[in-house]
Amino acid sequence: MAEAAAISGASTAGAHGSAARRLLANPRVVLGGAVLLFFALAAVFAPLIAPHDPVEQDLMLQYIPPVWSDKAEPGYLFGTDNLGRDILSRLIYGAQIALFVAVAAAAAAGLLGTVLGLLAGYLGGWVDTVISRLVEIWMAFPAVLLSIVLVAVMGTGLHSVIIAIAVIDWTRFCRVVRAETMAQKQQDYVASAVTVGLGRMHILWREILPNVLPLLIVLFTLEMGIAVIVEAILSYVNLSLASDFPTWGTMIADGRKYVNQAPWLMILPILCVIALVLALNALGDGLKDTLDPVMRK
């Protein structure tokens, strides 16, 4: 028994090592993960690395240009805005909001969509019909417009933004998980589990769900990118946090007013949004190529 356990442990370790090597060999995983890690570290250690208070105003320091300009001043790497607030500090604290909303909203949408998708795909019948019709009805509404309406009804704040994104995008998880569950349901291991008398819920949560997890990881990563964009849009129209709090969408909206005299106010937060979303998409695509057995073939 001990020898069998040792062989099983070595096999598992070898499989994990092989998966890790495949991930590190994929340039999209490495690049996307590196950029995501950069933003995550900046967000976590924002109080330590931000050079200034992001909401501190000094009208004597208005429109200091970034460091690549001849008129730049020491201590303000990316310059200041119309109220003399440090742009770099606001970008760093904006990363906190963007990543927090991305993780929380993607997790909430993934949880709701995964549960409904598993039930619809495995149970079939009227359960599948009801959930599928609900998904179709829900997807008929314009996503961004629905998010704005939901936040307007619930009130501004991060909790409203997270709920709105989760309520909109659970359908993405539900459709994909339903299709994958239906495919897994036809596999031999499910037939074997039914033969030995395992219950439906046991098969669904203990047998099928682990085989759907790689797909969920990919969906979660891609959903984070969507959440970053939606949060930026809601911040842009002042439906997220208070306007003085540094979010990338708010910074873009403020910078648009002064684009002719200080274009960096709008360009820098736009670049942050683009960089983070592209990194998440690249990471998701790389994970799909690496973890999906069909894509590996």
Walk me through what this model shows.
By secondary structure, the protein is mainly alpha-helical. Helix content is 76%, strand content 0%. It has helices at residues 2-25, 27-44, 46-49, 87-123, 125-139, 143-154, 158-185, 188-195, 200-236, 248-257, 264-291, 293-296. The chain starts with a helix and ends with a helix.
Can you describe this structure in just a few lines?
With 297 residues, the protein is mainly α. The chain has helices at 2-25, 27-44, 46-49, 87-123, 125-139, 143-154, 158-185, 188-195, 200-236, 248-257, 264-291, 293-296.
The main sheet comes to:
none
Helix content: over 70%
**CA-based gyration radius:** 23 Å
What is the beta-strand fraction? under 5%
* Oligomeric category: single chain
**Number of helical segments with 4 or more residues:** 12
Number-wise, the strands total: 0
3D shape: elongated
Distance between the termini: 35 Å
Mean pLDDT: 84
Low-confidence stretches: 1-15
Report the structural category: mainly alpha
